[in-house]
Each structure stands twice: as C-alpha cells, then as structure tokens.
Amino acid sequence: MRQKVVLITGANGEMGHGLIQVLSKQADTNIVALDVVPLDRALRNLVSTYIVGDVLDQMLLGRLVVEHEIAIIYHLASILSTKAEYNPETAHRINVEGTLNLLRLAVEQSQWQGESVKFIYPSSIAAYGIPTLKDKAEAGAVVESDWNFPTTMYGCNKLYCEHLGRYYNSHYRQLAADHDGKQTVDFRAIRFPGLISAETVPTGGTSDYGPEMLHAAARGEEYNCFVRPETIIPFMVMPDAIKALVCLAASPKNRLSKFVYNITSFSITAQQFFDIVKAAFPEAKIHFAVDEARQKIVDSWPECVDDSAARNDWDWSPDYDCERSFEEYLIPAIRKRYQ
Ligand code: SER
C-alpha cells in the first residue's frame, strides 16, 4: 500500500526548516521533503524521504504520485522578491509554472483518493503594491482586496498563484463533459509579512534587512542596512508563521470565508529594528546605506495588514509580539547559535 504523506516543496528553505520541525512531532505524519538542494542533515531523520529535485521536473512529480498518497501539500518553493528581479522570466517559471505543476499533482492525487487534497500556499505582503509613501501612510492596515498592484515579479507571481489556487479549488475544467463540480483541490493561502528566524538567514528577499541586521550583529560582522531608518513593514517570527500554516491547514473548510488571508504580528521601522539589535549587541557595526531600487520595493509594501478575517475564521493570533519575539525567541536563540 502507498504511504499517506505530507509533501513539502522548498523543504530546505527557511519555512521548510520550521515546518519540518513542527510537523515531525505530530503523530502519524510522514513527510516527503522536496528541494533543489539536499535537505539539511539536521532535518533528515525527521522526514520519511527527501528528494533532490525541481518543481519544474514533471517526471519527478509523476513518480511522486506513483509512490505516495499525498494528503496535504505545503508548496513553499519559490524565488524571493530581490532574487527574482535578476532573472524575472526564470523566477516566473519557478514561481508560477512550479505552482501549476503542484496544483495539477494535487488534482491527480485527489482523483485517486476520492477526496480533496489540501494545498497550503505561502503568499506575501509582496502581493501588494502601494504607489507612494503618502498612500502607504494613509492606507494603514490594508485588507486582502486592496492595493493588489505588485511591482515585483515575485509579487505578481504570488498574486496570480492565489488566483490559480482559487481556480483549481472552484472552477477547474468547468466545461468538461465529466465535470461533476466536486472539489478536488482545497486551496488555502496566507499572505505573510517579513519573516525572521533565529535558525536560518533568508536568501534573496527584500524584507531581509531585518533578519540580516540581527544575524550579522550576533556574528560580529559589519552590516549595511539597505533601507532608510524610517522604513516600516510588518514582521513576524518563524514559530508564529509555522503555527499559522499548520492552523490554517487544520481548520474546518466550512469556517473559511476566503482563500487568502493576511496575518501579522508587529510593524516596526528599520530604526526600531536597529535600536533593538544594538541594545542586545552593543558592539554591532550597522550602518544605513540605502539601495534606492530595493527601497522602492519595500516602500510599495504596506506598513501594516488587517488580519481580522484570519482572526475570525480560524482563530489566528500570534504568540509573539515585538517584545517577546526579540527577548524570548530571537536574541537568546541567535546568541546561542553563534556562541
Ligand atoms: N520576505 C519576502 C521577500 O522579501 C516576501 O515574501 O521577498
């Protein structure tokens, strides 16, 4: 008999690390981890199988279906916002065609299993695009349907994949003669703010100035923060982000009024980030050296998001506010890591 599994793509990334640690503690959870690079050794004994491969490799995905009964897909693989701007077309292929391949795999799996397959998708504040700083200040906490005009390839990809997910959930092959209206993909997405992990450093994002500043300070390295001190966006620590993914996946479908939910924890400026880091690591050598192009991207992201739908529908609430994030999680864990 084929084994019932949870498939995680992008398993070796920042979210993958956090998610594998949490899911592996749940009883009866078999994890199949997929990533383009070999899975971190520390995670290998927490998963049933890890596969080195690309979400664009249709043969590989086909083989996955043969060998496993996939009940839930956490599709985390993605090229982040800064990296995507260096080769937008390649990023589009990975971010959009990769998602399409996984959605297709979910449909196929659900047909074999006779029940819908959950598809959990991390979207981002990058799906928003606010044209000016005046608009950003006036917008305050934005709701999911507002300001959907992303300025990055990554943001466009995320917004479009949210729509793809909705389509596969509700309208897939709507004109086919054998279309029975049965749901096959149970699509659920979260728009995450900038994420900060104590265990890993991000690669290729534009909210990275926060976590990079912190990790550099703990390592005693010099760091040039690429945005102005007054720059503000929402952030969240990784344990809360993982909690959100797992909570949304576990929510009864009939409680969900949306496919895509904002969530947030705390909004702080780069200066506030600097002050907290400096207080914890007084020797830190952090300077502000603005990269205007990356600044523009961060300026287009909201300073805060309205997460009341997530709070109402699936009882979302972060465990870590700003103070607790730094004092109880980030600073002690990062200190220990680089000791
Ligand atoms: N944090 C991501 C980035 O900066 C956004 O999802 O690209």
TrEMBL record:
Gene3D superfamilies reported for this sequence: NAD(P)-binding Rossmann-like Domain (3.40.50.720)
GO MF annotation list: L-threonine 3-dehydrogenase activity
Superkingdom: Bacteria
Residue ranges constituting the NAD-dependent epimerase/dehydratase domain according to the UniProt record: 6-263
InterPro entries named among the record's database cross-references: Epimerase_deHydtase, NAD(P)-bd_dom_sf, NAD(P)_epim/dehydratase
GO biological process, one term: L-threonine catabolic process
Residues of the signal peptide: none
Similarity comment: family membership: Belongs to the NAD(P)-dependent epimerase/dehydratase family.
Protein name as it appears in the record: Putative L-threonine dehydrogenase
Annotated organism of origin: Candidatus Brevifilum fermentans
